[in-house]
Structures are given as structure tokens and as C-alpha cells.
Amino acid sequence: MHRRSLLSSALIAAWPAMAQEPGLREIAARRGITYGTAVHARLLESDAPYAASIAREAGILVPEGEGKWDSMQPDPGRFSLAEMEPILRFAARHGQTVRGHTLVWHTALPRWVWEANLTSASAEAMLEAHVAGSLALTRGRIADWDVANEVIGDPDLLPNQDMRDSIWYRALGDRFLDIAFHAARRADPACRLVLNEYGVEASWPRADEKRARVLRLLRRLLDRGVPVQALGIQAHMPLDQPFAPAPFARFLRDLRGMGLDVLLTELDVLEPADRPLRAEDIPARDAAVAERAYAVVSTAVAEGCRTVLTWGLADPYSWANLWPPARRPDGAEVRTLPLDRHFARKPFWHALARAFSGG
Ligand code: XIL
């Protein structure tokens, strides 16, 4: 109770300042761009300043975990929107859309899937049922789904094989994608069907190869009539990987040339976690993060990307605080997102505003 009233008075105190300037959703919308963020249902319901910032800044929401297999089909044949429903309700109240993430992935699977001893026939039946059952629940409420996520192998780990060695790939080869995308098209003819992938942004050989693998896969899928309509580019950008606009822009042009939409689906900028942190370094760190965000987003927008989501909005809620490769050993908070712990706008926010308004 006490905490609640503290939260709401903080919000009321901040409101006049926040109300003066439009949020990113509005700045982006002026140029026909949809900006939004990943959210946690639990926080939308329990953290008033968090919810206010999401309402103000985001035109589209994506559930950070609530659309994954273990949430959507926790037990065989039992499909549920229970975890996602608060996000759908919040979005409806605030004039936002919701995108879905993610139907087919190699992880976030419930134990009954791991223990299923898949054959090609049972894997096919399981994928079809999951896609059909999930989309039957979201049809008319979600018009954009990551049908498959992270299906390409990382060249450094799998030098001789394009595809990730997932349970789905092992059971079915590439065909698991045909099955999932066709099932999605049947279950929801109006939904945009997206393949989502990471590690395709940087300008170094590993990303060159991953881009080539993505293009080869998409070419194969399109040639055999698989209804994939867009590539979602996660854009978790480690700052210690080099970025140059040209190879990334060429990749986007190749995708658009194949008739595909491109989206940035999970943008954040990850600093190397092993450097000691000092308070006086924060302005320079924030500037470097913002510069990278601007470079990536302005390139994408110039190449026709019209949907941009960050993977969270304010630093304390970033997954990078928990994810081992990004998490700081000293326990300090990461500075990967557009807003700080007080929901104040960081240079990253201004970089997005500038990229969306074209200069
Ligand atoms: C992450 C979430 O942020 C975490 O909260 C969760 O515990 C694990 O998954 N790429 C993806 C996302 O496609 O689904 C991942 O999300 C982050 C990396």
C-alpha cells in the first residue's frame, strides 16, 4: 500500500514534464513507423511508472516470454492466453497493437515436449497442433507473429551446417519451417508471418556468413512456396562487434528485393560486461550506446524498415541484467535501453527520435 502510493506520487510528480514532449510512438508514427517494446505482463499490472512509460512511448507491444510455447501450451493440447491476456488488454486500452513471439523455437519448451522422443511424424503433428492451437486464440487480436525464431546455426559453432541443430531440425530438417509456416497461414490467413533471427547486423566475417545463411534459407523457402513474409532482425547489438552501415544496408536491400518486409524486433545495445564502471563514465557510455542505436536504426529505416521494437524500455528491466554474457559481474545495472531507472530519457531515446524523424 505504502509502496503503491509512493509509486503513484512519483508518477504524478513526473507527469507534467513527461506530458510536454511526445513519446517515441508518436514521433515514429508521423513517418509511418511503428515503434514499440517488449513487455512483461506482471509489470504492466504491478508497476505503475513502468506501465505509464509503456503507454506513453510504445505503439506496439511484444510479450517478452508470454507468447512462447511453455506459456501458450503448457500441457499437451491445453492452449492458454492466461499469461498474455494482461498485455492484450493493456494494448487495447492504450491504442497499441501486439505482435506475437514466438511459435517455434529451440527453447522455452515445456518438459513434456523435451521428453517426447520425437519422430518425424510426431514432430510434424506437434508443430502443426501448436501453431494451429496458438493462432486460433490470437486470430483477430495479433496480426504479426514470429513463426520461427533463431533457426540459423552460428558459423563459429557450426561451421559446416547452415541450420541450428534444434530438436525440430533434427526430426524434420528444413521441413519444420514449411510445416510451421503453412500451418500458420491456414490458421490465420491475415497474419504477417515472420522469421526472426539474431547475429546479422555486425560488419565482421561471422555476420557476413550468417547473413548469407539467412538469405540462402529464405530463397529456398520462397522457391518452394513457404508463406514467409518478413525477416525480423533481433538487433541485440554488442558494442564490441564492429558495425558499418553498408553491409547491413545491402542485406536489407537483398531481403526487400525478395519481396520481404524487414523489422527490427529486439533492439538493445550491449556493452562489454568486463570493464570496471565509474559514475563519471556514464555520459560517454550512454553516448556510445546511442550512436550505435542511431547507426542501426537509421540504416534500417532508410532501407524501408517500418517496425522497430526495443527489447524493453528502461534499463532496470532489461534481460541483459540477467543474461550471463551481458550481465555485469559487479552486479551493476546495464545501460542498454532508451530510458534509465527513473524512466528519464537517455541519449538512446534521442537517437531513436532522430532516426525516426529522418535526421
Ligand atoms: C529472453 C527474455 O528476455 C528473457 O526474459 C527470458 O528469460 C529468455 O528469453 N532472443 C529472443 C528472446 O528471441 O525471446 C529472448 O528473450 C532474448 C534473445
Describe the structure.
With 359 residues, the chain is of the alpha/beta class. It has a single domain, classed as Glycosidases (TIM Barrel, Alpha-Beta Barrel). 44% of the residues lie in helices and 14% in strands. It has helices spanning 2-20, 24-29, 41-46, 48-57, 69-72, 85-93, 111-114, 120-138, 167-172, 175-187, 205-223, 245-257, 282-302, 347-356, and strands at residues 34-39, 60-63, 97-98, 100-104, 144-149, 192-197, 230-233, 236-238, 261-270, 307-310. Strands 1, 2, 3, 4, 5, 6, 7, 8, 9 and 10 form a 10-stranded parallel β-sheet that branches. Helix 8 runs parallel beside helix 10, helix 12 runs parallel beside helix 13 (282-302) and helix 13 (282-302) runs parallel beside helix 14. Bound molecules: (3S,4R)-3-hydroxy-2-oxopiperidin-4-yl beta-D-xylopyranoside (XIL). (3S,4R)-3-hydroxy-2-oxopiperidin-4-yl beta-D-xylopyranoside (XIL) binds at residues 64-65, 149, 234, 266, 319.
- Total number of β-strand segments? 10
Question: pLDDT average, as an integer?
Answer: 94
Q: How would a crystallographer describe the biggest sheet?
A: 10 strands, parallel
**Number of helices, where a helix is a run of at least 4 consecutive DSSP H or I residues:** 14
The set of bound ligands, ions and cofactors reads: (3S,4R)-3-hydroxy-2-oxopiperidin-4-yl beta-D-xylopyranoside
CATH superfamily: Glycosidases
Q: Structural class of the helix and strand makeup? A: alpha/beta
Strand content: 5-15%
Looking at CATH, which topology would you report? TIM Barrel
CATH class identity: Alpha Beta
